[in-house]
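Inverse folding, one chain.
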C-alpha cells in the first residue's frame, strides 16, 4: 500500500509509521485494539492519516459498518482520539478498485462510504484527501490495460511469492503503491497542510 512507500517523498525530519493492517475495517481496527496502540504512540503535532472503506461493506458483523451511522461513528473515534493528543487527523477516501465497464469508465465499488467520509470531514472540520476521486482520474487515464501495471498483476514465474501468477484488482504492486502515494502528496499540497513544508 501507499503507506509503505510514502516516506520517500519526505525529508528526514518526517518519520512515517504505517499502522495499516490488511483486511481491517474502521470497526475491526478499533476492536482489535489497533487504534488504542496508535493513540498511545501519537504525540502533539503528529498527523494521523485515516483511510477506511474497502472492508466496511463486508458482510461479517465484526467488520461491517453502515456509511452514515456506524462508519462515521468509528471514524470519529480516530479523529477525536488524535485531537485529544494534540495530533492532526486527516481523512482519505478509499482508493478505487480496478473495475472497468464496457465504456472504459471505472465502476465505483465503494457505495456511500466516500460520501459519508466527505460529509463527516465537513461536519468535524477535518481535512479530506479524496483519493477515490483522484484514483478514478488516474485509472481512467491509464485505461483497463495500463492499470495492470499499477495493480498486482503478475505472470506465472514473475515473482517468487506468486509462482502461478496473480490477477488482483484491489491491491497494488510497488509501482502502483508509489502512484497512489503521489496522489496523497498532491492532496497534502492542495490542502496546504503544514506537513507540505517537509516534502522533498
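Residues assigned per position:
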Amino acid at each position: 500500500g501507499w503507506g509503505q512507500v510514502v516516506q520517500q517523498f519526505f525529508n528526514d525530519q518526517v518519520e512515517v509509521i504505517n499502522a495499516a493492517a490488511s483486511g481491517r475495517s474502521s470497526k475491526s481496527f478499533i476492536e482489535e485494539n489497533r487504534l488504542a496502540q496508535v493513540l498511545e504512540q501519537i504525540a502533539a503535532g503528529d498527523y494521523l492519516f485515516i483511510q477506511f472503506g474497502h472492508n466496511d461493506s463486508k458482510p461479517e458483523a465484526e467488520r461491517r459498518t453502515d456509511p452514515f451511522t456506524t462508519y462515521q461513528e468509528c471514524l470519529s473515534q480516530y479523529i477525536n482520539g488524535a485531537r485529544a493528543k494534540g495530533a492532526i487527523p486527516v481523512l482519505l477516501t478509499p482508493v478505487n478498485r480496478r473495475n472497468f465497464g464496457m465504456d472504459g469508465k471505472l465502476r465505483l465499488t465503494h457505495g456511500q462510504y466516500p460520501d459519508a467520509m466527505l460529509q463527516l470531514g465537513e461536519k468535524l472540520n477535518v481535512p479530506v484527501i479524496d483519493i477515490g476521486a483522484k484514483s478514478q482520474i488516474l485509472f481512467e487515464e491509464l485505461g483497463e490495460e495500463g492499470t495492470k501495471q499499477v495493480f498486482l498483476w503478475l505472470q506465472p514465474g514473475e515473482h517468487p511469492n506468486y509462482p502461478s501468477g496473480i490477477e488482483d484488482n484491489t491491491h497494488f504492486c510497488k509501482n502502483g503503491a508509489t502512484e497512489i502515494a503521489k496522489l496523497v502528496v498532491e492532496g497534502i499540497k492542495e490542502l496546504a497542510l503544514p506537513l507540505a513544508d517537509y516534502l522533498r
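The radius of gyration is 17 Å. The helical segments are 26-31, 34-41, 67-84, 113-124, 131-146, 174-190.
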